[in-house]
Amino acid sequence: MKRCHLICRLPRALTIMRRNRKPRVGAPASVDELPDPYSDLPFPSPDQCRNMRDGLLALHGFPKEFERYHRPTAAAAETPPFADESVLDGLVLNADTSAVENAIRCGGLASTKASCIKSIIRDLMNRRGEISLEYLRGLSVAEVKAELSKFKGIGPKTVACVLMFHLQRDDFPVDTHVFHITKSIGWVPMKADREKAYLHLNKRIPNDLKFELNCLFVTHGKICKQCSKRGGKKLSSCSNSCPLANYTVP
């Protein structure tokens, strides 16, 4: 997470700022401090989470795109990931916004993301004298959330992704794939919004399963379009090899 690597590696997670959004007041609470909005829903259980992880792992294997984010061993942890120097830091800071847009256009929302990326890098340089977020490693989860929430364009999903992928903290981001799959299998109510789904799933899913299960849900949502059909229930035509094909909660 040296310099602006974290920012440049997570452009998809940058959220669109609502023009009339009211400023945040105070530090966001950690998941542990907030109540489960669906405390009467006993799903998923630890066994259900483990069985789902094992089923998706058997089907897909662990996704290679996420291997680099595995929690490092004690020896590897001495060297933070992405600690290599890069001239990209200064180039992005000084580049025209249009050039940054062109570099990340394949991810969609290039104009919004480019503006946010440059704003974050500029803020880091002004506030801390360097383009680095390494200082986040020494903060608590609540402090990380409060710190990242100061930056334009950083929303709850971005924060959760930073916590899980780059800081190796026990968190469970809820992206489009995770949101629709967990609703379709009954782990969260169909009426749930993404923020409540995030709180509920983080309360219910064991910490030691969060990383792998999250990565597998994202991968499965990309591959098995039927399972992540927007706003709908699972389709009966889902492949029999899919762990979600005949999945039901008690």
TrEMBL record:
SMART domains on file: ENDO3c
Top-level taxon: Eukaryota
Residue span(s) of domain HhH-GPD: 74-223
Organism, scientific name: Vanilla planifolia
Family annotation (CDD domains): ENDO3c (cd00056)
Protein name as it appears in the record: HhH-GPD domain-containing protein
GO annotation (BP), single: base-excision repair
Coiled coil: none
Molecular functions per Gene Ontology: catalytic activity, acting on DNA; hydrolase activity
